Amino acid sequence: MRIxxxxxxxxxxxxxxxxxxxxxxxxxxxxVALGGVIGLIALLSxxxxxxxxxxxxxxxxxxxxxxxxxxxxxMFFIGGLFVALWVAAIIVGRKGEAAKxxxxxxxx
Length: 108
Prior knowledge:
The protein has 108 residues and is mostly helical. 84% of the residues lie in helices and 0% in strands. It has one domain (2-107). It is built from four helices and no strands. α2 (29-47) runs antiparallel to α3 (52-67) and α3 packs antiparallel against α4 (74-107). The two termini are 23 Å apart.
């Protein structure tokens, strides 16, 4: 579950870099800086996924990336895709961890 979540958050860091490039010509400096903060928090929370706090911060970042669509309108669509990837990472990750636990229990 951690690997999938970290993959999504790392890709979002890159996504925010590209979104900031798109926003720099048409937006104010604080809007571009906001994109940088969102991207850095996404990258930092990818490393914090061992704890519940990392998952909570990662979930909040999903909203930030989606609502960055007010700065770069395409981010509503792309942010929605990444929200779906985040949810899929949680669901698939939990199923994978449950299967791994079953396999370990059967070996004992």
